[in-house]
Amino acid sequence: MKKAEAESGETADLSGVLIKLGIFTVLMVVLPIGSYFVSRDYYFGEKNTTPPGIIAALMANLLLVGFVWYAMAEDRADQKREKLKKKQ
């Protein structure tokens, strides 16, 4: 809970956060595995598994970076809203 919420006694609405976490979790499972099999079956062949493995690892890392970036952007937006409330 944020400090401002603790002081005012209000609770945060976590439904949006949980939905975003759920979406990223599903993507973290489906996208790397899917990209592995698609790249293996359609581009590299079934005997060569190293490049599809690299692609799957890249997809997982891109999702992780995207999640962190999205969380940081959301936090910046919250901080701007708090500053605007303090000015009023």
List strands and helices in order, with pairings.
Layout lengths: L2 H6 L6 H30 L5 H38 L1
Helix pairs in contact: 2-3
Q: How much strand?
A: under 5%
The whole-angstrom Rg is 20 Å
- Structural class, by secondary structure, is mainly alpha
Q: Span between N and C termini?
A: 23 Å
Oligomer: single chain
Q: Count the E strands.
A: 0
What summary fits the major beta sheet? Answer: none
* Poorly predicted spans: none
Helix content: over 70%
Principal-axis shape equals: elongated
Can you count the helices? 3
Q: Calculate the mean pLDDT score and round it.
A: 86
Topology as a string of helices (H) and strands (E): HHH
Question: How would you describe this structure in keywords?
Answer:
mainly alpha, 88 residues, single chain
Q: How is this structure best described in words?
A:
This protein has helices at 3-8, 15-44, 50-87. The radius of gyration is 20 Å and the shape is elongated. It is mostly helical and 88 residues long. The protein is built from three helices and no strands.
